[in-house]
Amino acid sequence: MIKYPMTVQGHRALEDEHEFLSKTERPRLSQAIGEARELGDLKENAEYHAAREEQGMVEARIRDIEGRLQNAVVIDVTTIAHTGKVIFGTTVEIANVETDESLKYKIVGEDEADIKSGKLSVGSPIARALIGKEEGDVVAVKTPSGLVEYEIVEVAHI
């Protein structure tokens, strides 16, 4: 059985999405299917087929979320002692050794990852290179443009 590590915020977001899909989208789609069914011949009823297809996608997502929540390992990094080591859930500031460009990422679960908001999947190459290292360490990360070295400037438990 696969376990899904996630932050407290990521777990809450999945619960919120599940509630929205179950209590808002599911009834809305049932009503849309009922209304489309009343329009007559189901073979050539585009509204009916579109609503059924959307219902199938929503039900699949609900099942996926339920499976992830059931197998979630929620990690609250704020309750873990700060050692300067990069672990799941920490926010890491790194600096490119060559350009001195600074980046800040929070290492999160697969479902939470959003590079634009600085949330890096624990399975990404950068996160895999950082996990287990400490402030002051230099890590080499394989990128499409070659090997890039980053120094770990700060590890925060926020």
TrEMBL record:
Spans through the membrane: none
The entry's keywords: DNA-binding, Elongation factor, Protein biosynthesis, Transcription, Transcription regulation
Every Transcription elongation factor GreA/GreB N-terminal domain range: 5-74
GO MF annotation: an example: DNA binding
Gene Ontology process terms (BP): DNA-templated transcription elongation; regulation of DNA-templated transcription elongation
Keyword rRNA-binding attached: no
Similarity section: Belongs to the GreA/GreB family.
Family annotation (HAMAP family): GreA_GreB
UniProt function note: Necessary for efficient RNA polymerase transcription elongation past template-encoded arresting sites. The arresting sites in DNA have the property of trapping a certain fraction of elongating RNA polymerases that pass through, resulting in locked ternary complexes. Cleavage of the nascent transcript by cleavage factors such as GreA or GreB allows the resumption of elongation from the new 3'terminus. GreA releases sequences of 2 to 3 nucleotides.
Name of protein: Transcription elongation factor GreA
